[in-house]
Amino acid sequence: MNEHKKEYSFTEQKVRWVKKHTPKLLSFSITRPKDFDFIAGQFAKLGFMQGDEYISRAYSMISAENTDHLDFYAILIEDGIMSGHFNQMQAGDSLLLEKKPIGFFTVSRIPQGKELVLLATGSGIAPFLSMLENETLWQKADKVVLVHSVSYVDDLVFEQYLADLKDHAIVGKYANKFIYQPVITREKIAGALNQRIPQLLENSELENALNITFTKADTRFLICGNPNMVKESYEKLKAKGFALHRVHKDGEIMMENAF
User: Fold this and answer.
1) What structural domains and CATH numbers belong to the chain?
2) How confident is the model at residue 259 (pLDDT cuts 50, 70, 90)?
3) d(CA 20, CA 4)
4) What is the CA angle 12-79-88, rounded to 5?
């Protein structure tokens, strides 16, 4: 075990709580080492030992950067080895956390604009939840729009959390800037859009629902979630003249491809 700890450079953390939202969706919290620093939007590698084999996967923090714990959100995949472990996990159990966070899809890299549109499917909402608690995000735009696309209404597990942000110490100051737009693709529910995000971008239905005209001068997009959605949404936006935001070249789109 000591050899594995040295080789993989992880620490052993305690599970604080586990909450099952649906049979396939859960969130959980672990203790946080004092030297584990991350930027909102980054992810951590979590794992466990199966005999002599170290199993790990990457998960974005949903908690704020300044908390003394780390919270995560996961979709349980049938026959997934990590999902199977999470499904049995309880408060008090141990979980392995690699020592350094990963990723460049961070709040600090968001390009300045007037409207910031966060596009997420499924567990792709995770980095955005962390970003929403960072004041930097709110200083990047006059309006912040979170679009979360799921299959069924029961999959919208963070609606109450988002509603409560108006009472948050930081977010409360900017609550008038925030718009939340749910998308439900397999049910028709009042207040929710009903097509996949790439189609909503292509046919301008998202713009119409938000009463915002997306422009290259003013609108910035962050995209995270299902790889097909990320790729297709980028292609739809590219066709409308938007470009990728790079280190040495400003653009309007940031994407997370690690999901």
Assistant:
1) 10-98 (2.40.30.10), 107-257 (3.40.50.80)
2) low
3) 30
4) 45
